[in-house]
Amino acid sequence: MGKLIAANWKEHPKTEEEARALFRAVARIKRPRGAEVLVCPPFIYLEGIAAQYGIMETDRRRGLALGAQDVFWAEEGAFTGEIGPKMLRSLGARYVIVGHSERRRFEGETDAAINKKIALALRDGLNVILCVGEGPAVRRKGAAAAKAFVRGQLAKDLRKISLEKKVVIIAYEPIWAIGTGRNDRPEDAREMARFVKSWLVAHKRIARPKFLYGGSVNGANAADYVQLKEVDGALVGGASLKAEEFGRIVNAVKK
Ligand code: PGA
To answer: Has residue 225 got a pLDDT over 80?
Structure first.
């Protein structure tokens, strides 16, 4: 993996027609060498997009992949409304986002549930993007408090999970930076990247841990993050819904 530019469409757009049009525009973005693009649309659009573009979960070469925004912790069963990892893979998803702060907040998702989701998703062959990040009250206490908070999330969310031959990418998304236009200072994101990576090496024995920054990334500021050697890409919300803007982010990988 070079730099991963991941689009989190969240609950957008409202119709499948719009979703296909947006994906079509994203697929047309010329990707610089070393940039991989991941699109995470709402579950229901995965199948149509994968079919139209012939995207398969096994397809690792073309630099354009599909992922889901969540997954459940059981493969199948009496769990109304839930979607399991094998279902996602069968639709062409190669990645899944787990533990996004909006799910923690609006769906009451706990670290224990996130831990189970990651364990099953990895077992079933999905690459996981685990979202962590502190809220404004913690950040006001300073960098040490933010690191302690993130360390706590990592420890709980990855508890008893062996990461040998598995892909877990950590997306650091400070809650106060998501959708606010107040992106983190690149030097602070870099410091968090170093901290998270050294934690992963020490506690999970990952030789080459991966770290994404997320939170108000746009075409104008993306290069400040994705060109850092400690940062392996970006997780993009709002700006991923405008193909042109997203294209600028993808191209920020190029030095
Ligand atoms: P944002 O969202 O880019 O709109 O701030 C990022 C995210 O929540 O993944």
So the answer is: yes
The answer to whether 83 and 72 have CB atoms below 8 angstroms apart is yes
Does the C-beta of 219 come closer than 6 Å to ligand 1? no
Map out the domains of the chain as residue ranges: 3-254
Tell me, using a 6 A CB cutoff, whether residue 6 lines ligand 1. Answer: no
Question: What is the residue with the minimal CA distance to atom 6 of ligand 1?
Answer: 237
Q: Is 191 labeled as catalytic in the residue annotation? A: no
Whose CA is closest to atom 2 on ligand 1?
237
CB-ligand 1 contact for 8 (6 Å cutoff): yes
pLDDT at 139: 96
pLDDT per residue over 84-119, tens digit each? 999 999 999 999 999 999 999 999 999 999 999 999
Q: Tens digits of per-residue pLDDT, 188-223? A: 999 999 999 999 999 998 889 999 999 999 999 999
Question: Does residue 203 have an active-site annotation?
Answer: no
Q: Are 50 and 56 in contact (CB under 8 A)?
A: yes
Q: Are 250 and 218 in contact (CB under 8 A)?
A: no
CATH of domain 3-254: 3.20.20.70
216 CA to centre of ligand 1 in angstroms:
6
Q: Is the pTM of this model over 0.90?
A: yes
